[in-house]
Design brief:
With about 450 residues, the protein is of the alpha/beta class. The protein is built from 18 helices and 11 strands. The chain has 3 domains: about 210 residues, NADH-ubiquinone oxidoreductase 51kDa subunit (Rossmann fold, 3-Layer(aba) Sandwich), CATH 3.40.50.11540; about 80 residues, Roll (Ubiquitin-like (UB roll)); about 110 residues, de novo design (two linked rop proteins) (Up-down Bundle). The longest helix is centred in the C-terminal third of the chain and has 18 residues. The chain starts with 19 loop residues before the first helix and ends in an 8-residue tail after the last strand.
């Protein structure tokens, strides 16, 4: 049986864990001396051998990705940290930055040394005011005490960090849209190739990594490959912060080894589902991953096991829903989100999510037609694999899985014009006096 971890979250319970004094007193920045005594390419190989996979959703091997960076181009290399955490259900990076911002800065310095980069950017979600304040304080402290800037710790290594506040567009979480936004342009995804590792920020070689990914780097360098691989699975090693939300007793961020079964995380860390409720469906990696059912609750939470179950680990944002909740209403809320957040660059995404929302609203308003279920499949197919970036694919992914696992709920809506008995209106949907859902009105709308 796996046990909870305290690696990335070791300072969560410390009142001063976010300060430089508290960080250094608990071993912070110790990986710098270890890293600076080795060749950058050797350190990249260590990250590769440790098996670190990106924690931002894709799960691509970090060391392999860093190996794509050209080292003889004569151009400056940039590191861009993607802290634009906007995925519904995902909030791990927010708490990591709030409670332990120096852990991110230490990882940045080590990563920059590996990449032979002298400049890093943190692209922070604009709504993250408190994490931003903590990062500003930490950056100032690090510069003052020689952990950032010129000749760090007398090593001859120079690293400068710039904190950039985003303007609130979800699409800027896509790495090339983020780079455009950093350059002061409208945040929209770029055509690839060239990939950012070759031509990214300002046309220079750029590595884009998630906050949690970068935080792992210092631990690998300091404690070694064997230590890191002692946690998790062979193909998905290391610690992972799982953010659990929905109808559980204690939602929050919990650190476990990769590969811990979902049920174990929910039962032992979250106190199980809310009293009197049973698990009905859940999204293992946020709203842009295919839905799973209660039958999948014992699936190990790692990239390969979740993929084998028919979904994606994504950001490991476990959104848990009970037998009191309508899957159709939940999917409508997510579809509205992607409709609103589409950048409008490509037709499948721009038009597709609008029409998907119309069909869902018609179903929930009691005007559903038998052909609507086939129409949902058709519209989803017109987006999947045809959108310019992954927003389209992710946005439609809950739809086919919900139709597969809960088709009876859709068919009940078509046949009776209302949800089955016992289902409550989902967040964001109001009801009329009959108790039937009225998705044409958002809660709080004028």
């Amino acid at each position: 049986m796996a046990e909870p971890l305290s690696v990335l979250t070791s300072r969560f319970d410390m009142a001063e864990g976010h300060t430089l004094e508290g960080y250094v007193a608990t071993g912070g920045y110790a990986s710098l001396d270890v890293a600076f005594g080795q060749a950058p390419t050797d350190l990249v190989q260590q990250v590769k051998d440790a098996g670190l996979r990106g924690r931002g959703g894709a799960g691509f091997p970090t060391g392999v990705k860093w190996g794509f960076t050209p080292r003889d181009s004569g151009k400056p290399v940039y590191l861009a940290v993607n802290a634009d955490e906007g995925e519904p259900g995902t909030f791990k990076d927010r708490e990591l930055m709030e409670r332990d911002p120096h852990q991110l800065l230490e990882g940045i310095v080590v990563a920059c040394y590996m990449l032979e980069s002298r400049r890093a950017f943190i692209f922070l979600r604009g709504e993250y005011v408190w994490p931003g304040m903590r990062l500003e304080q930490a950056i100032a402290e690090a510069y003052e005490h020689g952990y950032l800037g010129k000749n760090i710790a007398g090593s001859g290594v120079d690293v400068d960090v710039t904190l950039h506040y985003a303007a609130g567009a979800y699409i800027c979480g896509e790495e090339t849209a983020m780079l455009d936004a950093l350059e002061g342009r409208r945040g929209q995804p770029r055509l690839r190739p060239p990939f950012p590792a070759v031509a990214g920020l300002y046309g220079m070689p750029t590595q884009v990594n998630n906050v949690e990914t970068i935080m792992n780097v210092g631990h690998i360098v300091q404690h070694g490959i064997d230590w890191y691989r002692s946690m998790g699975t062979d193909k998905s090693p290391g610690p992972k912060v799982f953010c659990v939300s929905g109808e559980v007793a204690r939602p929050g961020n919990y650190e476990w080894p990769m590969g811990t079964p979902a049920r174990e995380i929910v039962d032992r860390s979250c106190g199980g589902m809310l009293a009197g409720r049973e698990l009905k469906f859940w999204a293992p990696g946020g709203s842009s991953t295919p839905l799973l059912t209660a039958d999948h609750a014992d699936t190990p939470m790692d990239f390969d096991s979740i993929a084998a179950a028919g979904s994606l680990l994504g950001t490991a944002a476990m959104m848990m829903y009970s037998d009191h909740t309508s899957v159709v209403e939940a999917v409508l809320n997510w579809t509205r989100f992607y409709e609103h957040e589409s950048c409008g660059k490509c037709t499948p995404c721009r038009e597709g999510f609008f029409w998907l929302s119309q069909v869902y609203e018609r179903l929930l308003d009691g005007r559903g037609r038998p052909a609507d279920l086939a129409l949902l499949d058709e519209q989803g197919d017109n987006i999947l694999g045809r959108a310019f970036c992954a927003l389209g694919d992710g946005g439609v992914s809950p739809i086919p899985s919900s139709l597969t696992h809960f088709r009876d709920e859709y068919e009940h809506l078509v046949a009776h014009g209302r949800l089955p008995d016992g289902l409550e209106a989902h967040a964001g949907v109001v009801t009329d006096n009959s108790g039937h859902s009225r998705p044409d009105q958002l809660v709080g709308a004028p």
